[in-house]
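request received
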Amino acid sequence: MHRKILVAGLGATALFLAACGGGSSTSTASSAAPAASSAAAAASPAAPAAPTDDSNCADPTVICVGLVTDTGKVDDKSFNQSAWEGAQAGAAAINGFSKYIETTDPKDYAANIQQFVDKGYDTVVTVGFLMGEATAAAAKANPNVNFIGVDQFNAVDAATQPNLTGLVFPEDQAGYAAGYLAGLTTKTGKIGAVLGTDTVPPVKRFGEGYQAGAKAANPNVEVTLVYHAPDNAFNDPEWGAAEAQKQLAQGADIIFGAGGNTGNGALIEIAKAKGAGDTVFCIGVDTDQYNTVPQAQKCLLTSAMKLLAEGTSDLVGMAANGSFPAGNYVGKAALADYHDTASKVPADVQQKVKDIIAGLTDGSVTTGVQ
Amino acid sequence: MSADAAQTDLGISGPDPRRELRTRAQAVIVPLVSVLIAFAIGGILIWLQGVNPLVAYKVLFTAALGNEQGLTRVMEKSTPLILTGLAVVVGLRAGLFNIGAQGQLLVAAIGAAWAGYAFQLPAIIHLPFALVFGMLCGAAWASIAGVLRAYRSVSEVITTIMLNAIAIALVDYLASEPLKEADQPLTRTPAIQSTAALPDLGIIPMGFVIALAVAILLGWFLSRTTGGFRFNTVGLNPNAARYAGISVRGTIVLAMAVSGALAGLGGAIETVGITGRFEPAFNAGLGFDGITIALLARANPIATIPAAILVGILRTGAASLQFETGIQPEVVDVILALTLLMVAAPIVGRLLFRNRALKATRVTSGWGS
Amino acid sequence: MSRRWALALTIVIGIAIAVAFVMDQTKTVSVLNFSLRYAVPLILAAMVGIICERTGVINIGIEGQMLMSAFAGFFGAALSGSMLLGVLFGVGTGMLMGAFLATGAVTWKMDQIIAGTVINIVAVGLTSFFYAQGKVLPDIFPTFAVPGLSSVPLVGPVLFDNNFFTYGALIIVVLLQVLLFRTRWGLRTRAVGEKPSAADTSGIAVQRMRFMNVTIAGALAGLAGAYLSLEAAGTFERGFTAGRGFTALAIMIFGAWNPIGALGAAFFFGLAEGVASQLQADEVVAIPQQFINMLPYVLTIVLLAIVSGRVKPPAAVGRPYEKD
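response:
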């Protein structure tokens, strides 16, 4: 019984919310699973010899992929980490080499990108929407290098800048699906969300999508959205935990934590609460946080995912085989597996969530979020 | 603490030439040896990560000093550090510990951005206007702490900590609501007009030149003018200053305003010279680095220049260090912290000069009073 | 802050809480719970400041002491598999950092603010360099409801149903208040902080007293750090103390170097934070969030400006003791 539902859950995960946008229909190279560990880039075993360093990157037959983080680390359990896993997997799939630089000062964006360009890298991935301008400038200056801007909506059209693509995600759809599930699952009729700052658009889209989805599932559900103040918004787990506890005390039984370490603090706190994984649940964000925040496994219902690793990996592959989709590339959103909580979600709820995901995918369901 | 001993500590020594020479020699040798020891310990950390420290340091310094782009970036990074360092130094000389350089820098950076984008002026007026307006914002922000200290005996350490928190929230509000660039999602102001932009002199950023000039000017002011004498006297012994007919309150307010203006100049140069607009994330931490710089420089204005350049080199080279060797850029912070520890604590001085070592730098008094 | 102002503020806040409780019990209790748990590290850190300053030493390195202890506590617990060992690691590291400050500021007679700043910078450098991902705490701390007391309306669920850190912090506050003003240790500590030369003449070993007190205070900073990583956040992240050590200094002054006063001030900061998020949750705010967040800081400045002159720091604070 239990096992069967787990399999059903896995099925739901496979249903991606959004198809590839940007006019491209190439969704082939998506099977490369993101590397589980952030250790060295694993070369694919079957291929001949993948380069072990970047000394020959200038050679056109040697594919090199560089990644520049926002002012964060590649072990951030969140978007930098996923993008790096994607870059590694993408490079491994084409037998290329990959490497990263962690930015410590936003004024170094351009210089850090330049390090890769100077070494003759073929594709440079920049992570985070603050890097948009630096990425666009670098793309203009270096027409022979392909640039992938993760979470950066690209305002320049494909014709004038064929080597730049913004990898963006329909966060509102991921939030909507998570909210829909929460709206159907809540017993108290109250759900909450502990979020990073609403001055960061993807976070706001997650929050508003969540609210819209919950209301669509059950118009009577009460949704509480609380955003952290803009300063230090993504590195305040203590605040996230305190806010989660407050929302629980006020009757919320499902809480969405979306905001880097702040949101992770909320998840960890909920896992400590009485009834965690039984009557009280949490929902993670960005990646399957069952893996990245193991302390939260007990309460984790699902995660509202942006398939960052897959999107990055796909684009790295496309850049190498000449089908690079310039402009913007809409990555996929999805709900993560139910894991340990699968038995707490009735089969009919799982089916309804599956249907709404299908609806979001084919466009028959809209989130109403700008 | 006697006024005489304190004067020695600040490097403005008495007439004994031998003593003066010793003081000067120590003031140069101690920091140099401290830096070397810090690099040695940093080297051990690098070695523990499986990388040859000599190779790592070569990469770090080549990236920072081995080419034009590197040199430019070192100078760009040093500029706000010199200025916030000077801001802290001026305060220390007048007996004030300005922890608020960060807040002053932020309000100045957004002030300069507003002055830079909201007006249509010829370049010859616009650029100085943006810089001066930024400085005034910084000075005004610091003056809150100065006035409260002078007239209400409220510790400037506390008010500047509070004012930092307030400034962070305030500029965030301004950049996300009234001064936000329309039709785009980022929290930031519009770009400044080209007439307000700070030009470069070849590979040398103009802001760096300004910072050097200000440091030298301030060194002259503090050691050679009556105004500087007033600052030092108030800082060393407010009672003596009062006897000598110096307005202690006026001096405190002025010193705080000057300190804020210096930090403000740092913020304004960042806006008109580097970022071209105000965006909160781009100014993080610069004010706090000023404290490090001032302490490394032992409250000497001229010495802020090498101190800031050292930090600039380390920060510039850090990314290449990771790119070439995989060493985490944070190793640079460890090296910096160790240097500061040895410069500030009288460890190296005692080791080298035994009982003739200078006393530890004494730059602050207690709270209030 | 002067007693009159403190009393007035306490009464106003007390009435506001009572009114809120009548209107919505659940929300009021949960906001107060938020405030208290948010205040706990601030309370402990403010006690660090009070002990140090009462004995004549400025400790501006509380932030760094907390960060190092939070780091040691978290990784100590994760690697050893014991939460209790984690707390010990945290407290021990705090004590070590306290002894470090004491060595610099007391033994070496370094400038006290420089010594503290060094701690802050060293802590940021070391903890971010040695940070490792993927470590998980082995367990969670239980909460303990005091039988009887915990069922008293309002007060019960807020004060008497907590984890041991919270009880510990509250007990330490009361204990410190008694120790400082009712015991020989307190008298000596205050004498050393007010007039060290007179204390010396009367046979108190000024340097030893200062060294000891600063080190003990470090242990409390360690407890605050351990609370942050082991209980409040359940994790360690780079730089996640986020200025709490500095806020604690403001709280210390707000509370007039008085443990009970600082407790009230810390709770006020926590309350402002809790009310800010509740206003947002209830969607009753027309004011931008940034203004609510800066409110406690603005109020601190205003209050300090109003009551200044009536509150004085220990006279000898910040000055190393030199025998004449």
